[in-house]
């Protein structure tokens, strides 16, 4: 992804990725709810961090999902760094 990827694009990608991990319809996910409340496990959180690292093309600490615990917060992280 390039540096100009929008917040909305990151939210969309994260929503799709998390819905696939949790096997739920993307429309059932609220971007402002903590991922742990949505049912994301610690193993899935580390996997999501790796996927985000691939998407951004740079190193992302595996704890990013705990530091930014919602889809919206992760999207904020993605556009701000």
Produce the secondary structure layout.
Elements: H1 7-22, H2 35-38, H3 42-56, H4 64-67, H5 71-80
Helix pairs in contact: 1-5
Low-confidence stretches: none
Largest sheet: none
Shape: globular
CATH class: Mainly Alpha
Structure description:
The protein is mainly α and 81 residues long. The chain has a single domain (7-80), classed as Non-ribosomal Peptide Synthetase Peptidyl Carrier Protein, Chain A (Orthogonal Bundle), CATH 1.10.1200.10. Helix content is 60%, strand content 0%. The chain has five helices and no strands. The longest helix is centred in the N-terminal third of the chain and has 16 residues, at 7-22.
Short description:
The chain has helices at residues 7-22, 35-38, 42-56, 64-67, 71-80. By secondary structure, it is mainly α. It has one domain (7-80): Non-ribosomal Peptide Synthetase Peptidyl Carrier Protein, Chain A (Orthogonal Bundle), CATH 1.10.1200.10.
What are the salient characteristics of this protein?
81 residues; mainly alpha; Non-ribosomal Peptide Synthetase Peptidyl Carrier Protein, Chain A; 5 helices; globular; PP-bd_ACP
